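Q: What structure does this chain adopt?
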Amino acid sequence: MTLPASSESSSGAITDGDYTLQFFIGNYKLSSVTITFAAGQVVNDEKVINLEGELRRDITLTRLAGVHTSVYPPIITSGFDSDVITKVHITPGKTDIYFHLRKLVTRDFSIYTGLLIREADSKKLAYTVDIDTASSMKEYIDRPSQTLDFVFNYTDVNLPSGIYEVIPFFGIR
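A:
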């Protein structure tokens, strides 16, 4: 990782002090280390980092939940004008996990929302499925597992032919 040069803090440069370096992978608990800088240089720490900026230990991330996503229908043919259902199967790694999900709740039903659709080859975001009136809600996902259905009308999306990936977005605590 290339660091900005030491100079004025207003220009985005690193100033003297402690910084937290966070490690993240989806479905895993964040892990972090604290690194100290002085005069624009990494301060050697026998337990954390050397002068070349190499971490001295492996960083371990704890998996919070298994998440498997399936899209139905898996292939959309010409003339398709119905709903696309994305099933998100969640297997919590422990019992005290809460998910922060985008959800629209009415008196009669609730709808999960919060999907990113990206082109598989270019990895560019093609569409976001997120109902404006939905709220972020904290929801307990019980063991052994739970399946959430995210539904959107394909004709509203109007994507060109291609291969796409559907990625649910939510927070885990």
